[in-house]
Amino acid sequence: MEAMNFCPMLPVPEKLTSGEVHVYRLTGIRFAPWQSGTAHLSPIARARAARFYREEDRARFVTVRTVLRRLLAAYLGIAPDAVTFVYGLQGKPALASAWESESLHFNVSYSRDVAVLVFARERQVGIDVECIREIPEVMELAARFFAPEESAALSALPDGARTQGFFNCWTRKEAFIKALGDGLHYPLDRFVVTLHPDRPAALLSVKGDAGGALRWHLRALDLGPGYAAALVVERGADCILRPWHLALSPDAGGGLRFEALSVGWRV
């Protein structure tokens, strides 16, 4: 067990090559003391943390951003404080131009007390996780945001499967537009994904782009009961996906303790 405050780098399991995608499941994110952690974040991230109304939401945000910074630092072989970011037009973070030669891409998502982080070289990536919860107006939301083919597929599901189907569709769409870097400015009905709980995740089509579905590889991630998650990787059908689990807990000094880095959770 390795104790750590907000300064040291996290270890990475192995070198990240262009033929691999590293995915981390992070648990224990609600324990982070947000105020002490913000000193090691960028001014933009500190401002975002301060805007959260609930302290537990600030804690989650700070923990995830801190772990992201440490993992990036470990992959780059630099100190966490030396990691610098730039932001796209829709707010997607990327490494600053000083690290452009590394071709290191990443994405992050979290919900409740679980986060997922993905890293790849020479490939754009997008990831999303949502806590599954009942939504009374699920069909109305699908009709408003989903492609007609997806709304029809959701309507065809039994009542007991529609909530899972909705969040399958939502996370797959979010992961795709995050990989594109366009945020919600990219129309959600412009592309079609599968959503059936018992069928494989897939990007079926991208309107106006005949080869779009072949450029991206979509897959569901199994984070356990109560969560839906998806990963999209550019030209990802031939890559090796390596998953790890990072567990965090609070230490006596008000910081975080790195409990475990394990291999083998299902993806």
Can you characterise this structure?
This protein is α+β, with helices and mostly antiparallel strands and 267 residues long. The protein has one domain: Ribosomal Protein L22, Chain A. It is 29% helix and 30% strand. The protein has helices at 34-37, 43-51, 55-76, 138-145, 148-155, 159-180, 212-215, and strands at 2-4, 20-27, 85-87, 93-95, 104-111, 114-121, 125-131, 191-193, 203-206, 216-221, 227-234, 240-250, 256-263. It has a 6-stranded mixed sheet, covered by helices on one side. Strand 12 and strand 13 (256-263) form a beta hairpin. Helix 2 (43-51) packs antiparallel against helix 3 (55-76). The chain is globular and about 50 Å long. The model is unreliable at 1-9 and 260-267 (pLDDT under 50).
The figure for the number of domains is 1
Distance between the termini: 26 Å
**Percentage of residues assigned to helices:** 25-40%
Taking all Cα atoms into account, the compactness measure Rg is: 18 Å
CATH architecture: Alpha-Beta Complex
**Molecular shape:** globular
The CATH topology comes to: Ribosomal Protein L22, Chain A
* Sheet having the most strands: 6 strands, mixed
The CATH C-level name is Alpha Beta
What is the number of E strands?
Answer: 13
Low-confidence stretches: 1-9, 260-267
CATH superfamily: 4'-phosphopantetheinyl transferase domain
Structural class: alpha+beta
Strand order of the largest sheet: 1-13-12-2-6-5
Average pLDDT across residues?
Answer: 83
Total helical elements: 7
Q: SSE order in H/E notation?
A: EEHHHEEEEEHHHEEHEEEE
> What fraction strand?
25-35%
